[in-house]
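DUF2945 domain-containing protein
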Amino acid sequence: MTKGRSGSKKLGKGDEVTWSSHGNRVEGEVEKEITERTEAAGRTVDASPDDPQYQVRSEKSGRSAVHKPSALKKK
């Protein structure tokens, strides 16, 4: 794991991560890094190269979600 320009952790496609969703710990995989304002996982994501977000897919439900790097923990 490397550090990005803003000091946040840099994740890559295929990295296994965990995050909290509705009080539960969810495991999944990074699908892609988002570095521009776009539609993803059913919502508008306001990301930039200096403030990226990550689209992740839950192992259990198979659904996609988008999170900031600070919400994700690499397994």
